[in-house]
Each structure stands twice: as C-alpha cells, then as structure tokens.
Amino acid sequence: MPEQTVSVHPAGFVDLHTHTNESDGSATPAALVELAKQIGLSALAITDHDTIAGYEKAVPFAREAELDLLCGIELNTKMDASATFEGVTAHLLAYFPAGPPTGEFREWLIDQQEARRTRNRKLVASLQNSGLDITLQEVEAHGRSLAGRPHFARILVDKGYAHNPQDAFDRFIGEQAPSFVERQSISTEEAIRIVRESRGIPVLAHPIRLGLSRQTEKEKLAHFKHAGLLGLEIYHSEHPPALQAHYHQLAAELQLLPTGGSDFHGTVKPEIQLGTGLNGNVRVPREFVDALQTAMR
I need a surface site. Which of 63, 71, 98, 144 has the fewest CB within 10 A? Predict the structure, then answer.
C-alpha cells in the first residue's frame, strides 16, 4: 500500500491521472484500487506510460470494490519539428471509456515500448561515459521493460550520486542535464490521430509543462483541436487555482472536454496524494467522467 494519509473524500470526486508500478509508479494496481476505495473516489483512471497492463491487472480488483475504472494511457509526443518548438515534449493522455483500445493500438504500443528501451540503453551509456556506475539490468530490475527516468533517479540516489530524485534529474538525467538522452517520439498530431482511430479520447496533459505564452498556448491548442484533440487537463498537481481557472476558460473557448487528476506515483512522488494532488489542489468532479463516456456514444 502506498503511503498516504487516508481521508474520505466527499462523494462524487474522481482521479483521472494515476500511475502504477507497471510504469513509473510504486503502487501495484491492486493497491491503487484499494487506496482509491478507501479515500472515497467514485472513479479512477489508470494512465501508465506506454502500457495498459496496470489497468488490465486492476480490473478484477475494481470490480470487487465496485469502483468505476477507466482505461487510460500516457504517451510521449513532440510538439513539432519547427525551430520554435524543437525538442518541446507534449504528454498526451488517452482515455478509452467504451472499453480497452483496439488490437492495432496495442501493436503500435509495442513500437513505443521499444523506443523507450532504446533510449534507456543510450542513457545508461551516457551516464557510464560520465563516470557513473550504472547498468541497464539495475534499471530494469526496478522498472522492467517500461523503466523510465524515475527508475534511473532512484538508482542514482541509492548509489549516492544524487541527494534525491530531483537532484538526479537536475544534474544527470533531466532535459537540461549533460547526460540527458532524448527519446524518439512521434508528433503530437500523429498521436492524436492514432488515439482517435483506436476509439480513444486524446487529452493534452499538464499544459503548464509546455512553457508557452498564453497566446502561443491557445494557438497550439486550437491547432491540436483541428487535428482531433478532444480534451484538456484542467486539474493537475502542478496547476495552482489561478491556472486551473485559466485552463477552464481555455477549454470552454476551444470546446475541449475538461479533465483532471493528481498524476499520482505513490512513493516515487510522495508529496502528490491520490485524489487531492499537491496540498489539496486537485478536486476532479464526477461529471468529467460522465462527459468522457458521453463523448464516445
């Protein structure tokens, strides 16, 4: 069970952005469902990176707990190849409220998982070239085939190379760090198309991370909507109330479905609490789930 103060939520709240140990979280799918039930969530979406294995393992536990469970996934994409947005990463959440994705989508995920493994091999080599004693076997012992940079950070901390995970990112594996290796990713527009063809709902995750001006942000979101984007993540642990209000208005103006979630990772990010985010800044209403389900009818 991930460490979290258990306080029952008012009825009708949900969390649509969570991770299990099938990607870069610490909680097993069963433990995540148990915690969601304990704190009174009425629905939960598991959105592991590049895999729906966590969702599939959670299904029988959610059924037993009588908890509504949504199939989701988080995908790594690149904004575009222009000089203005070169190297800018956009995370895309995909929800499948009508049922798991198509077989074609699952086959495509295998390619995405291999791209992750290729990046991991290159990142290990880069860290070794910097004099750090780290192996791919150690990383995959923590994260298996879907190991990510949080697993690298954990090892760097355990070996004394970094004081904490944030220090590991800042000095070794973050995008501005000398050992960083960029992962090969498809464009945001292409990912949107693939999700839509797979009967999914594509949603732009934590837009604050794009680091865009308000005008550019609106222009890019309008462009993505034209490409098939259906939603925008309003509530997120990195969105203070003023930004939540901004994204609410932006979603309304662009006619995008509002969504939200804590981005819970368990003990990997202990400051982030399931259902409530950072210091209670996340409260996602049940009607967001109802809107997602209605959109697929």
Answer: 63
Q: Which residues contact 22 (CB under 8 A, 6 or more apart)?
A: 29, 48, 51, 53, 54, 57, 146
Residue 204 token pair: 């732009």
Q: What span, in angstroms and rounded, lies between the C-alpha atoms of 228 and 190?
A: 10
Of 27-31, 35-39, 139-143, 148-152, give the lowest mean pLDDT range: 139-143
Residue listed under structure tokens 């997602």: 292
Structural domains in the chain, CATH included, are 13-102+189-295 (3.20.20.140), 111-173 (1.10.150)
pLDDT at 145: 57
Contacts 24+ apart (CB under 8 A), 134-140: 134/159
Token representation of residue 153? 């950070």
pLDDT digits (tens, 9 = 90+) for 202-253: 999 999 999 999 999 999 999 999 999 999 999 999 999 999 999 999 999 9
Note the helical H segments in the chain: 29-38, 53-65, 103-129, 136-143, 149-158, 165-168, 188-197, 214-227, 241-254, 287-295
C-alpha–C-alpha distance, residues 106 and 83, integer Å:
32
In whole angstroms, give the CA distance from residue 67 to residue 12: 12
CA pair distance 84, 116, nearest whole angstrom: 25
* C-alpha of 219 from chain center: 23
Phi, psi of 116 (to 5 degrees): -65, -45
Q: How far, CA to CA in Å, does 235 sit from each of 9, 43, 70, 249, 263?
A: 16, 15, 17, 13, 10
- For residue 276 the two structure tokens come to 């409530």
pTM reported for the whole predicted model? 0.87
Q: How far apart are CA 115 and CA 118, in angstroms?
A: 5
Instruction: Give CA–CA dist 53/70, Å, rounded.
Output: 13
User: Residue 232's beta-bridge partner residues?
Assistant: 204, 258
